[in-house]
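lol so apparently i was supposed to do this last week
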Amino acid sequence: MSTPANDGTQPRGIPTEGTPTEYDPTVPEVDTSEEHLAAIVTNEEILALPAEVSGFGAGNVGEVILDVKNLSKSFGSVHANKDITLQVRRGEIVALLGENGAGKSTLMNQIFGLITPDTGEVTIKGDKTPIKDPRDAISRGIGMVHQHFQLVPVMTVAENVMLGHETTKGGVLDLDTARQMVRELSEKHNLAVDPDADVEDLPVGTQQRVEIVKALSRKVDLLILDEPTAVLTPQETDELLGVMRDLANGGTSIVFITHKLREVLAVADHVYVLRHGAVVGEVTDIANTTTTDLATMMVGRSVVLNVEKDAATPGEVVLQIENLHVKDDRNLGAVNGFDLQVRAGEIVGVAGVEGNGQRELVEALAGMRKVVSGTMRLGDLDLTKANPYQTHHAGVGHIPEDREKHGLVGAYSIADNLVLNEYDQEPFAKSGVRQFDKIRAYAEKLREEFDIRSSGVGQSAGSLSGGNKQKVVVARELTFGPKLLMAAQPTRGVDVGSIEFIHKRIVAARDGGAGVLLVSAELDEILSLADRIAVVHGGQVVKEMPAEGADRAEIGRLMAGDH
Ligand SMILES: Nc1ncnc2c1ncn2[C@@H]1O[C@H](COP(=O)(O)OP(=O)(O)OP(=O)(O)O)[C@@H](O)[C@H]1O
Ligand SMILES: [Mg+2]
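anyway here it is w/ magnesium ion bound
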């Protein structure tokens, strides 16, 4: 078998160069004069005023900070935003809900000056002047944490914060000031961020907090958080929701985008629902709203939030992992003597707090990370030393945790991404010549089946909405008929309607005889989808149990290392 060069960091099959960035990476220029820095914490000053002057107080959200009227935006034939009208008031948390591709990020990117609206009016604190660019948005008190992190991994936290302030005419923000700023903001908002840590060493939850510190390091009245919880563990999420509540109580307005309806009910004061680019609903009475109500508004039909499936009928062993040892990026033991079997026709859920070796385990199984010792077998085949290409062709499907890095080639079309591992095989190529009609027909079929919202299969994967990118990866990995499907966070960033669909497809793969290894940070997902649960801690399986009748509290204790 010929094996293309692959250092393990690229999607399997095709060696690639560079991936495009979705957003304009221009570093915004901001004012770092002393007066400006001194004025960063203006919300406290507002709060110090009597309520009748500030217009802000308990149960009394303040004046309108953001006023959007009749805003529309198209990309070619895609009407991403249609005649949108909404308002955000001071001290209010506004949740923006909608299916993948509904237009949430597009709307917020316009408020942040990354994209210019086609028509409509955006008023910020009474000022109707159109927002020119992110620098302008920042100077007018808007901060945004994007759906995809924008931090520079090789720099420290303070250096990253400094970067956003660097190009100022009034002088460069020096490192000591940046460090102090990080320390103060971290303490004030209970964000637990170390200014001197290297960003690449930080877990995603902490990186998310660094993004927030970075946004808050400028004067922020309106903070936009685009799916900040998608990559967080439940614990980290609860912490972040607490931080958001504190910020709002301090007078900051927040626009919060999420697909997790529980979070909306926990923290939002006001909800807008988008569908196909338009506002289709608004909720202000959160206390009397249920997740089912929200799901129905989003999708336009009722959604089954619980997975319906028959009992599994496990067959022969497809995956056999024995005494596996794998190291992490820092060369420390991450998987430490891992034993597990997955049979054909069953879903085994790996439950554990993130950082207990799950990522390294999946990467090793996918051929992306070296195994130190132990074995992994797929049926009769020893995969311990296989590379990603060999692993795939042996019949292992892999929905990777990080779709941007390992799942997609952003510059390639949806169609090319759908045949990424098979591009040189029949029927997609014949005698070395690619069969474009076949590729297109196959891609059209999957686009339809998986509801990949796009202008066509020729659209670049990089320009898809976050959840639709995920659907491309899921469609590819489920459709080639894997013997073993490894699904790592398969519904991350995916809307409720699509979660239902992906779950059904995973169950269908199981019923078709595939063994499924499900790794998810959502215990709910594991409990509802898995047939058997393996609880991991410290890189080992500490207990296996049937999912039926599994005790959530016991799993929680085992995950925390109490065993
Ligand atoms: N630069 C672009 N070029 C072409 N189409 C685009 C571009 N940016 C966004 N779109 C399209 O606009 C629509 C709205 O996308 P957007 O990213 O706003 O969705 P979203 O609501 O944020 O979805 P998700 O929940 O998946 O993040 C999608 O159909 C998307 O493909
Ligand atoms: Mg989005």
